[in-house]
Amino acid sequence: MEKIGRQVRLPLATAMQISLQGIRIRLGRALVTLSGVVLGIAFLMSVITGEFINAAVKQEREVRNQTTLMSTFVTSEVGAVAGKTLSVAVFGALSAPEQALLAGLAAEHATLRAYGYSGTGVTAVPAGRLGEGSALLLVLGDNPAPGIALGGLMAGMVQPVALDARLRTYPDTPPGRLEHFGIQSAEMLAKAREAERQQGFRTRWIVIISLLVTVIGIANALLMSVTERFKEIGTMKCLGALSGFIRRLFLIESAVIGFVGSFVGLLVGLAFPLLAYGVTFGFPAVFSALDGKRLALSALLCLTAGTALSILAAIYPANFAARMVPASALRSNV
Amino acid sequence: MTDRAVIIRARDVTRRYKLGEEIVWALQGVSLDIFEGEYLSIMGPSGSGKSTFFNMIGALDIPTAGSIEFMGEDLFRLPEDKQAWIRCNQIGYIFQTYNLVMVMTALENVALPMILKGDTRRDANAKAGAILERVGLGHRVDHLPSQLSGGQMQRVAIARALANSPSVILADEPTGNLDSKTGEEIIALLKSLQTDDRVTVITATHDVKMLSVSDRIAWIRDGRLERLEARANVQIDMGSMTH
Predict the structure, then answer these.
(1) B167 — pLDDT class (breaks 50, 70, 90)
(2) What residues does each domain of chain B span?
(3) Chain A residues within 8 Å of chain B (Cβ atoms)
(4) Domain A78-187 carries which CATH code?
(5) Extended beta strands in chain A, E state
(6) How far is A242 from chain B (nearest CA, A)?
(7) Among A22, A238, B2, B13, which residue's CB has the most CB atoms within a 10 Å radius?
């Protein structure tokens, strides 16, 4: 008589093949499970993408508002800037609205004389000669205490008026009028920061809930598909399938569904906010605002999370299926 | 008859179920030796425990007490991979409800045990085709079970049971869902497996047509082995001559 052998452990490739065949012939069923993953990941991805676009667009919008505000100040002082001579003193680095302001003034054909700054359409001059023939002095940059006397900068101006973008301290009393423009109060800044914090908290909460819904949805769908297949699992065991093999079949199935579902989901979740914000703010603005690297990173995160969560959700159903005694699996009539 | 090798030895096999609060004794200590190459029918009314006993000797269920020896080893003390090897290589199962994988074609169903044994799909498909040819379904290989008649599905199930050339065929009510003529054809096919392939055939049945082909008949009633009958001596001798 032959000796009792040990059942071979089939290679992963075989399990993969049988699992994929299972998905193919039960495509309708797999699509239902898949749509659960797609929805969950699409939601996650759209929240992330929406957040990115929103942040980028918001910044863009703020810069634009700030620039408009500053140029309104300038025009209210000197009227139309075309042909006028304006002097600019820059201490430290320029902010984005300040840069936009200078570019805007140059585009409107103002003659710009600058100390501490050089660029196209701007003539660099020494500090002592900055005021010559100028209608307005703009003090820009992020240095709060330049240690330079305003008297020197404003000498020789047609009208001794200075607009300062920051609350700077000077060693002397200004020889003419000194006004501030484009400054946000500390109160406003604090309020904006608080709103941002709350928004971030709400976003995280929504993401966590959406992930939970996805996991429960997938686990439920897989549990259903295991229950439907009790008889088939019993049959497979009769024919010599090991418990580990049955477990593997279900894990592979859900990994494949999770991966494909996450991929589709992240495309959907990317497309929807792009469309929505694109319609509101214009597509060029939205596309230029997007940070490709961060977006790719979140896409990768979604793909990994979707696949991992699908596998996680499948562990219980897969173990349940694998542990069944063949006779009781065969007896069930679902 | 005593010189024939025992392939399955059941000793005091007991199986108890819990149905809510009630305890059901499906088997109350059945002992039986099954010989290599014989055609044994386990007869009994429904609810007698014959299907439970059938599941035990097929390593499909675990007894509450008692033991089953298969090829000289205690079946339920074997590790899982040895049990699976026995199910895959030594036993072919046939069920009343066929238990085919409904989403696979006839060929894929028959090839499945070979794939699980480790054969390549190409080899498995070639062998499966040949076996289906043998059971008279060579023209139906690519049909799904739902496109086949009951008799044809049972032939696919028999072909699947034969896939890995088992030493034992276990058939649980194989003719239960078939009309009488188709049932006779299936019985003839099972008998030919015993006589031509020297396979041990064990059927659990209450189909009296099985009696004429069986070497021995075990009557089970209320979870006990009531009596064990051999057919006329002449026929048993004929049976032994093939061994």
Answers:
(1) very high
(2) 37-49+81-241
(3) 1-10, 14, 17-18, 22, 25-26, 231-232, 234-243, 245, 325-328, 330
(4) 3.40.50.720
(5) 85-90, 111-115, 122-124, 136-140, 161-164, 177-180
(6) 6
(7) A238
Of A3, A234, A241, the CB nearest to B84: A241
Domain layout of chain A by residue ranges? 12-60+189-331, 78-187
CA neighbours closer than 13 Å in the CB half-sphere of residue A140: 24
- If phi over 0 gives left and psi between -120 and 50 gives alpha, with beta otherwise, what is residue B149? beta
CA angle A271, A276, A279 (to 5 degrees): 115
| CATH assignment of B37-49+81-241, among 3.40.50.300, 3.40.50.150, 3.30.70.20, 1.10.1670.10 | 3.40.50.300
State the average pLDDT over residues A239-245: 93
- B24 near A CB under 8 A: no
B144 vs A: CB within 8 A: no
pTM of the full structure: 0.74
DSSP 8-state symbol, B211: G
Say whether B62 and A237 touch across the interface (CB within 8 A): no
* Residue A316 pLDDT greater than 80, yes or no: yes
Taking CA–CA distances from B87, the nearest residue in chain A reads A240
Q: How confident is the model at residue B232 (pLDDT cuts 50, 70, 90)?
A: low
Residue of A26, A328, A330 lying closest to B99 (CB–CB): A330
